[in-house]
Amino acid sequence: xxxxDVTKKLLIYHTLYRLNLSFSNxxxxxxxxxxxxxxxxxxxxxxxxxxxxxxxxxxxELLEAMHQTELDDWGRFxxxxxxxxxxxxxxxxxxxxxxxxxxxxxxKRKKK
Length: 112
Known about the structure:
By secondary structure, the chain is mainly alpha-helical. Helix content is 90%, strand content 0%. The chain has one domain.
């Protein structure tokens, strides 16, 4: 299941990249047509504006949908890392951290 999720995310992000590359090409081609004298500067700005507005709308919708997916993955995979860190932790670390905390509290009391 996890491999399928990774492949699906790769496909989504790759598709977004390809869409953005295509939008960039459209903007560039509009400028080329203007420079060739086929399209006016006003029309070029208008067409480029339409293209970039659509690009931004698609990006926003897709990234909004992917945001929750990424948050879920971050939480899920973070639990794996935390479990490994817990497994590797020295049981005596609890005592070390407790002593460090006592020192901090003593310093705070002395400053008051």
